[in-house]
Amino acid sequence: MSFANIPxxxxxxxxxxxxxxxxxxxxxxxxxGTSGNLSVRVGAYQPEQFHxxxxxxxxxxxxxxxxxxxxxxxxxxxxxxxxxxPSAETLIHAEIYRLTGCGAIFHVHTxxxxxxxxxxxxxxxxxxxxxxxxxxxxxxxENAKIQIPILPNFAAIPRIAELIPAALQQDIPGIxxxxxxxxxxxxxxFEAKRHLESFEFIFEHIYRSLTLRG
Length: 214
Fold this sequence. Notes:
Layout: H1 8-27, E1 37-46, E2 49-55, E3 69-73, H2 90-100, E4 104-108, H3 111-119, E5 125-129, E6 145-151, H4 157-167, E7 174-177, E8 181-186, H5 189-212
Parallel strand pairs: 6-7
Antiparallel strand pairs: 1-2, 1-4, 2-3, 4-8, 5-6, 7-8
């Protein structure tokens, strides 16, 4: 489906979802210094052709403006005439959409995901076991054990995107950039938000547990 054929109501709904999520995450301090980015897919999905709304580059996400978001195609390029620039990490969103067919992707920088990803960076994944909010990722087995992938935080975004196919795990709806932040996704905005909140709980749980153990 071409971008022009996507119903206006669907585009407006995607933008409204992003505004609500942006406001909620900003209230938690998850967008320090204009960091982070959010996106929601619109229209039909095909690996070789899809579109999504994404946060514009360099915006203060603690306030709302008419220029907070724009629509881009599967290559991360604007889908309509605009003076806005997509977030620098839009290519990462595009690659995750291409590989998973998900409906929304949220990326935030927090103290906990930065510290934990740096601590486990050489391992290549963050291990977690027996933490209640693992269930928030849709994993319900007793005393579940998971490994959350960590990728290096290269300055060149295409280098990161190239590593995503090998890093993705079918049951883990997220990847972490080392000492940078997490990308969490889901079938829709509600699910992506739940996954992100679950990951952040897991990171804080790990950090505080390690602190208590000295």
